């Protein structure tokens, strides 16, 4: 199967549900989207593909009314329409599951869902949430507070909120990036059922095997323009990736692990209570991560991975002896003190946790590097007062990260929120790797990045480990785990199974362990 040219007609019959007609979007001197045209029909599952920064999210934000096109427009069932706002899009029949969650952390699940729906008694809405979530395999308690949910659980709330609107067109922007394979497959069952009932699905994902399994049509963007259309079922994932980036996709460079190095990060019976009524307590967690290795922590969302990351990063404190960094007790230390011991951390939620959207990239870099990268002036006071930061050095360091990890964004020092999700992810991971820490803990390192960027990030993690660092990767992506990990441990209900060499692990055995079986049962 060869790709159709960008100008070739889709070759399908029937009136489109939505026509995107020559849409462009400019932000000042930057053209984010240029003359994009494609159609979606009722019941069709249509992929919108492209590398990070290709313009996918900008296109769907215009369809959803969050942005207005600079040129071009839309037609709904053949009639020209102006989509002035998300409320207008929802009234028309368009629902959207955002890549970056549009939720209020202080509200409950039911209260967040209620904001997008016509008013109804909360008790009735809670019943509907339970019914829909159970029916679609996306179980969630409507009374839980959003701040207490894992990233994967927050994604479920976004999906449920859309399903309750009974949309005619459902836009999914990276919906499975934080879901396990089992959760993703359950979502696909939902999407196939919706399309059988006539709902169109516009699907954005960097997981190209998912696209091949789910979608029957694809429009491919590169640097804001349509470059090709195809039936993804008739192409390999590699061919799709190469069409997206216009070049070959490199494999992860993974040299053999050296002889085990010294223990650089250790947990000694780490036990912490749940931080809230719906959180997960950590129970007698022990591990040793050695220099030279990548140690992966696998598990279903909500099993204690977020709490483990908080305990490793210093956001949650424990007895001093429960966490050791290069042999030094660190359990009672905060994040800055642990960074001064040579550790680095990259959390799963890039917006608000790893980066502040309203701050420039250099300012975001200074937030995590001010005490360890030669950026602070004036001693302790300089670390507390932004005016004492060496901003020239911060901007230079930020530029190094952008160049090394191909972080694309407008201007020399853009705000974090102006970057696409994948480009911000590359910046967050890159700023930690370029510090060359002795210990690096990353949570979902390639969430929302394209195939080329994922390979580059994974290669950088392996290189850092082979240079002598201990790298701990918390991930729900089993392909990622098997690609880079030297040993794998499984998180389940706040406990961590002993790590096993990757060579002794299969996907089936790992799935059994994630489901709750012990090591003996998994090996049987």
TrEMBL record:
GO molecular function, one term: ATP hydrolysis activity
Source organism superkingdom: Bacteria
SMART domains the record matches: AAA (SM00382)
CDD domains (alphabetical): ABC_Carb_Monos_I
Pfam family, one: ABC_tran
Keywords on record: ATP-binding, Nucleotide-binding
Presence of keyword Isomerase: no
Every ABC transporter domain range: 18-248, 267-518
Entry keyword annotation includes Nucleotide-binding: yes
UniProt name for this protein: Nucleoside ABC transporter ATP-binding protein
